[in-house]
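Handout, page 2. Input:
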Amino acid sequence: MSQAVLDGVRDLLPTFRERAEEAERLRVVPEANIKELEETGFFKLLQPKRFDGFEASPVDFYTAVRDISGACGSTGWVSSVVGVHPWQVALFADEAQQAVWGEDTNTRLSSSYAPTGKATVAEGGYTLSGKWSFSSGCDHCTWVLLGGLVFNADGNVIDFKTFMVPRKDYTIVDVWNVIGLRGTGSNDIVVEDVFVPEAFTLSMGETGQCRGPGQEQNTSDLYKLPFHSVFTTTICTPIIGMAMGAYAEHVEMQQKRSRAAYLGEKASLDPFAAVRIAKASSEIDAAWALTMNNIREEEALVAKGEPIPLKLRLKVRRDQVLGSQRALDAIDSLFEASGGRALAEGTYLQRAWRDAHAGRVHAANDPERALQMFGAHEFGHKIDPGMY
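Output:
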């Protein structure tokens, strides 16, 4: 079934490319894009089978995201972050899963995981308040996943949790006026003194140990992978897809381009241009191959019932942040060599350049921290596995 979804997604790519300017103008992914992705089954790739999902390999999911991003960066970004949430919902208690999908298995969730909210312990759950930024695709969703610190009666932090909140209990504040990923509608979420039952929360400490109460119902190996491997790759993949789209457009542009400054010489005959695309294509291929190979390696260990070593989890993060950087460097080099026509509104290349730089500033793509952790572990220093 995964192949049928991938085929369906690829059929949509020309239309997504045509609507990319509309997404920027609206500052949100067009509703038609979301509906058409829903019809392919894309949003169910990582959803449990008992809720009409496919329980597909994350590699299939990332492949679809890569392809979508190569047509429209904003649609790719939103499809990635919204499409990965069923994986985490599957780890929540069954009561929460039923609340989300019991009546409609097409229900979607957005998120904002930074712990900018405050939760206090209440009978049977927590009282949650706060404001969260960058909830991509929130206009297309009816639930949200929010990060928050839990405080006890003494005012001490006792946990870091993800809180699942229905649409009636939060407000979306339209603040998304940006230069890159303009079409993602990554607006603010505001919650004021909302009660969240215990079953609708998930401890990040537990998640970091590849555990969750939902594993009792959802026994697939898919739900035994590390949260931070699955989610950070979700943030890196759209940028790799944007690089692939930029590469394809650059090659096409150079085949048609004549350079007046060089007496009308065809750009494709420039040996230095050939070297540039060779280097860019290698960087993009390396980003994709290393990132997917690490996920496959984790899948293989889970399938054998073996624990995923911390070194591999850190390697996932190492190659994920460097994969984003490789893709970004490739886009930069292609953009610089594309000539003045690449500056025109409507070209994929200039949009990919803006979108990729916007995606790079996401916390998951911050390279120094991930690389420092990998290096420190190699030197034998103790690393907290909960965040990797």
